[in-house]
Design a protein that fits this description.
- Helix 1 crosses helix 7 (about 165-175) and helix 3 (about 60-75) crosses helix 4 (about 90-100).
- The longest helix is centred in the first third of the chain and has 17 residues, at about 15-30.
- The model has no long low-confidence stretch (mean pLDDT about 95).
- The radius of gyration is 16 Å and the shape is globular.
- It has a single domain (about 1-175), classed as 3-Layer(aba) Sandwich (Rossmann fold).
- It contains 7 helices and 7 strands, in the order βαβααβαβαβαββα.
- By secondary structure, it is of the alpha/beta class.
- The relative contact order is 0.18.
C-alpha cells in the first residue's frame, strides 16, 4: 500500500513533519501490511501566489500537477497541518489552491487521515476543523483526524514517537483505518 504523507508546511523543522515521520515508521513497521510511505517536502512545490488572473495568464504550474499526480498514484494520504494564526500555512494554502484548479477533488477519492500538531493546548483545532469539514468537498474519504496538543509534552523528539498512551492509541487506530 502506497501512502503519501504531506506535512502542510514549508518548515524543515516542523513538528508536523516529525509526527508524520513517526507515522511512517509505524506504518512501515507493520501497522499496515506492505505500507510504503513517501513524505513530501512542500518546498519542492513552490509556485507564484495563486490568483485567477495569474491562472489565466500562466495556467496551472507543473508543480501543482506533480502534487495532483502524486496524490493520484497513492492508495492513501496523510496530511499533518501546522497551524498559523488559527488556519493553514501560506505555503499549504497556495499549493492547495493551485492544485484545486486541476480538479476540485484534490484528494481524488483516496482515504485520508488528517492531523495537526501544535505546541499549545488546542492541538490545531482551528486548522483541523476547517480541513476536516471541507475534506469531502475536496474528494477525501476521511478515515479520521487527531489534533496533538502540547507537542513537547506528548512527543519524545529524541525517540521520534508519541509518549502519551491514549494519544498514541488514537493515532495508531486512525493510521490502521487507512487499510480498512
Amino acid at each position: 500500500m502506497k501512502i503519501l504523507a504531506i506535512p502542510a508546511t514549508n518548515s524543515q523543522t516542523s513538528i508536523n513533519r516529525q509526527l508524520l515521520g513517526h507515522a511512517a515508521r509505524l506504518l512501515e513497521d507493520g501497522l499496515v501490511a506492505g505500507a510504503e510511505v513517501e513524505i513530501l517536502d512542500l518546498n519542492e512545490f513552490e509556485m507564484p501566489i495563486y490568483s485567477p488572473e495569474r491562472n489565466a495568464e500562466i495556467g496551472v504550474p507543473a508543480e501543482a500537477q506533480r502534487l495532483f499526480d502524486a496524490i493520484g498514484a497513492a492508495d492513501a494520504v496523510l496530511v499533518s497541518f501546522a497551524e498559523y494564526n488559527g488556519s493553514y500555512t501560506a505555503a499549504w494554502k497556495n499549493v492547495f489552491d493551485w492544485t484545486s484548479r486541476i480538479d476540485m477533488a484534490v484528494y481524488q477519492g483516496k482515504k485520508v487521515a488528517m492531523f495537526a500538531a501544535t505546541p499549545g493546548p488546542r492541538g490545531g483545532a482551528g486548522v483541523l476543523g476547517g480541513a476536516t469539514m471541507s475534506a469531502p468537498f475536496f474528494g477525501a474519504e476521511l478515515v479520521g483526524n487527531l489534533g496533538l496538543p502540547s507537542f513537547y509534552d506528548n512527543f519524545d523528539t529524541e525517540a521520534g514517537e508519541l509518549v502519551d498512551p491514549e494519544l498514541r492509541n488514537r493515532f495508531e487506530k486512525i493510521l490502521g483505518a487507512l487499510a480498512g
